[in-house]
Amino acid sequence: MPATLNALLAHEPFHLRVIVPAASPTVEVLWAHGSDLDDPTPFLSAGQLLLTTGRQFSGAVPHLIDEYVSRLLAAGVVALGFGTEVVQSGTPPELVRACRRQGLPLLEVPYRTPFIAISRWVADAQAADARARLDWALEAQRAVSLATLGNGGLTSAVTKAAERLGCAIAVFDPDADVIVSSPGGASVTPSGGVASRASRASDATPTATAATRAGTPQERFADLVPEVKRLLRAGRRSRADVDAADHAIVQTLGGTRRIRGVLVARRTEPFDRTDLSVLTTLTALAEVSLEQGQVVRTSLRSLADQLFELLHDGQVGVVRRATASIPVSVPDDRFRVVTLDADQAAPGLADQLERRAFATTSGIFLVHRAGRLVLLVDERRWESVRRMLDAREARAGVSETVGWPALDVGLGQAARALEAAGAGEIGEFGELAARSFLGLFDAGAVANVARVRLDEVLARPDGEELLEQAAVWLRRNGQWDPAARELGLHRHSLKARIAALGAALDLDLDAFADRAELWALLTAAGVSAIDNARTPAR
């Protein structure tokens, strides 16, 4: 145990007598120093017990003794020990009154007790306490390390460290969301019978903190999220000590430019160096765990490709059984298909989506396909995913709610919605279809058929221009003069070109049915003049 006034007074061989008691006898004594100087404070440090024979008080007037006591308190002296029968018989009444008025604990040291013995006792007690704290820290580090090797992994390590340190701990991911935390509930004290330095120095009743708050882990650490986000934005390895209603350590995980998360520990009492050594061990283990998680996600990408092919073939049951014990989630029977261009996604968005998807209960399946990210999102999780995409100003296409038999339909809808979406916009197929029925023509198989049908025309040097002119003509309801004026052509030239197009496509463009077929072909192929005519202004 440490050297405290209580323990010192209880050491019977010293025969010390309390004259002015301390408000808290458990206050720690860091050292004992003897001096008879009129002003010994330049040679003192906070936490010391000052021992004196009172030579400096010979003939001193009371106000000088008051000033002496005041200087000791200002220097952080925790108590004054007066050695009797050396210079004076008994303790001077003026000194007793000064100490009582100002609240400085005063002890009487008998002649037979050497000052050096008291100094030695304090030094030995502090050394024994330091050894005990070191042994405790080594045992705590070992316990945390062993916990990591069990089935619980990082979660078990966090729980064990929280128990040993008597604090609440959480690990945040790069999105400032809690991914691992110690259990909520009543605050505990450090195990092993060795209390922290702060708990030894204070007898105050602890106030409620995150260690005792109820609610979800995100709620219990909500007040520290701004600091967590600040360190994440900085993007470099760093630590912040936060002192508010309690004491918190906020430590980044990972190296500069590859921060994997943040570890937070908090409790009512400050953390000392031995506490920090345990947190350092936990930090190292958390960094290894998060790096390993990154490696696992990389390996799961290729597995997700194979699983997607099985889903595409209707083997949903097989995929569910295969993913039962790995961190890959498969939505329930009603889901949305979401498509994003991988190379245009906001920085970090793909990594954020992967972290969400590669968890057994996420309800999100993610696969990389042809330069795009494709997500199958459980209908119940869609709103939370949408909020994530909105926050990143992502450009995405979203299908209507579909089931596994309609997976192809959902893929086509999401792709079409992505093509129609503007920058930073989430395009929903349902809204696209509501704006224009013809907007469905350029989706899936219809678009492919249209492009094959127009292939012969597009092969001509002026093919695209010819289709654009035909689109303007149809938009002008087949009227030659308005269309010719818009295109800057003579009406006979336009007639000749439209006739040539009809011949190439084997269509009689004087007939309504064949004109309607040409309109549908141009719409499905996405000819710009048609798109501009049917797309409302944003």
TrEMBL record:
<feature type="compositionally biased region" description="Low complexity">
    <location>
        <begin position="190"/>
        <end position="215"/>
    </location>
</feature>
<dbReference type="InterPro" id="IPR042070">
    <property type="entry name" value="PucR_C-HTH_sf"/>
</dbReference>
<dbReference type="Pfam" id="PF13556">
    <property type="entry name" value="HTH_30"/>
</dbReference>
<dbReference type="InterPro" id="IPR051448">
    <property type="entry name" value="CdaR-like_regulators"/>
</dbReference>
<feature type="domain" description="PucR C-terminal helix-turn-helix">
    <location>
        <begin position="466"/>
        <end position="523"/>
    </location>
</feature>
<feature type="domain" description="Purine catabolism PurC-like">
    <location>
        <begin position="8"/>
        <end position="123"/>
    </location>
</feature>
<dbReference type="InterPro" id="IPR012914">
    <property type="entry name" value="PucR_dom"/>
</dbReference>
<feature type="region of interest" description="Disordered">
    <location>
        <begin position="183"/>
        <end position="215"/>
    </location>
</feature>
<dbReference type="Pfam" id="PF07905">
    <property type="entry name" value="PucR"/>
</dbReference>
<dbReference type="InterPro" id="IPR025736">
    <property type="entry name" value="PucR_C-HTH_dom"/>
</dbReference>
<protein>
    <submittedName>
        <fullName>Purine catabolism regulatory protein</fullName>
    </submittedName>
</protein>
